[in-house]
Automatic annotation (TrEMBL):
It comes from the Bacteria. SUPFAM superfamilies: Glyceraldehyde-3-phosphate dehydrogenase-like, C-terminal domain, NAD(P)-binding Rossmann-fold domains. This is Gfo/Idh/MocA family oxidoreductase. InterPro entries: Gfo/Idh/MocA-like_OxRdtase_N, Gfo/Idh/MocA_oxidrdct_glycsds, GFO_IDH_MocA-like_dom, NAD(P)-bd_dom_sf. Keywords: Oxidoreductase. It comes from Streptomyces endocoffeicus. It holds the Pfam family GFO_IDH_MocA_C3. Residues 133-267 form the GFO/IDH/MocA-like oxidoreductase domain. Residues 8-123 form the Gfo/Idh/MocA-like oxidoreductase N-terminal domain.
Length: 372
């Protein structure tokens, strides 16, 4: 029997989100965490030591490390395209946090560079690989709600300035509720309905200045550079339609609402920001008008952020397609930018890109099994 040979992973960006990736990736036998890099080397060292990673250093140390096969890009959105392109130039595959970039041009350049070099790009969110969306997709394929017709999603809260110690980047270009949280909902909808064809949207900025409410910088004010409330309509290739709210302006937190209505019933998904949760269906109201719900038997194993990295690592070794591709990330970015452009212009915007049908995760796949 051949020796087990895990795929080497280098992390770039040792901020808040790195905790989840480092926690989960070290649990997958097919992954080997090699090095953590950051602009702040002390922060990279702290995260590496905390999670038992043997090396740390600069971004360049990660990109030039001979044992790194995939660079996991956890930098801020404005740096995603630059770091990912640098990784491709260095001969590494890339997994990027969402969005793939903050403009179409740099995202397209990245994908073209990777294709020319024979390298892969994967893009968060990988929540669509979890049991929640996978169970819902199979229910729709089986015809459990008939032909899917429409969707409704809601993500509203008071905003990350309430809990993040350095939230400015979440209110800058490439973020806001649309670009920060929108990828979870739009990726789930594309997974269920196919490519987005056109969008119409309106938006507003509730407050031009925000105040940090937690951490050492509590009380610090900063300017808001993006709409903090967006209401969007979308039409999909298959004729389905959706309406979505993305807001950082609501004192009433209401997140994770994803409802898919078909000709024979309505299906409720768990929060697309997470990997698992109940998938429920109602087909007809009871005699008193109340919905009668049934829970769909779940499919898959919950594994958390990093599942897409694992899927890509296995796909590279097996010379098979991976699921959360750069093309999917580009289409989601294209859709989000089209929504943003509709907010600015007041007009319907046609989405130029298309993406192939998203692959299903094979039933029985175990992220905690050593397969390589």
């Amino acid at each position: 029997m051949a020796a087990h040979s895990p795929v080497g992973i280098g992390i770039v960006g040792a901020g808040n989100i790195s905790d989840e990736y480092l926690t989960n990736l070290r649990k997958f036998p097919d992954i080997c965490l090699v090095i953590v890099g950051d602009l702040d080397i002390a922060r990279a060292e702290a995260q590496a030591r905390k999670y038992g990673v043997g090396e740390w250093g600069t971004t360049q140390d990660v990109l030039t490390h001979s044992d790194v096969d995939i660079v996991v890009n956890l930098t801020i959105p404005a740096a995603h395209a630059e770091i990912s392109s640098a990784a491709v130039v260095a001969g590494k595959h890339v997994w990027s946090e969402k969005p793939i970039a903050i403009d179409r041009s740099s995202a397209r350049t990245l994908l073209d560079e990777a294709a020319a070099a024979g390298l892969r790009v994967g893009v968060a969110p990988d929540t669509v690989l979890g049991p929640g969306v996978q169970t819902a997709r199979r229910a729709i394929v089986r015809g459990d709600i008939g032909t899917p017709l429409s969707a409704q999603t809601v993500m509203q809260s008071a905003g990350p300035d309430a809990w993040h110690p350095s939230p400015e980047f979440l209110f800058a270009q490439g973020a806001g509720p649309l670009f920060d949280m929108g990828p979870y909902y739009i990726t789930a909808l594309v997974s269920l309905f196919g490519s987005v064809v056109r969008v119409s949207a309106v938006g507003s900025t509730g407050r031009a200045v925000r105040t940090i409410k937690t951490g050492d910088r509590a009380g610090t004010e900063f300017a808001v550079g993006v709409p903090t409330h967006v209401s969007a309509l979308a039409q999909f290739d298959n004729g389905g339609v959706s309406q979505s709210i993305f807001s950082f302006d609501s004192p009433l937190t209401r997140t994770g609402v994803v409802e898919i209505t078909g000709t024979e019933g309505t299906l409720i998904l768990p929060d697309p920001n997470y990997f698992a949760g109940d998938v429920k269906i109602t087909r007809a109201p009871s005699s008193d008008g109340e919905a009668e719900w049934e829970t769909v038997k779940p499919v898959g194993i919950e594994a958390g952020r990093g599942l897409g990295v694992l899927d890509m690592a296995r796909a590279i070794r097996g010379q098979q397609p991976h699921i959360a591709t750069g093309d999917l990330g580009y289409h989601v970015l294209d859709t989000l930018m089209s929504i943003d452009e509709s907010v600015a212009s007041g007009e319907t915007v046609h989405v130029g890109s298309r993406v192939d049908a998203i692959l299903l995760v094979p039933e029985g796949r175990d992220p905690y099994e050593a397969t390589l």
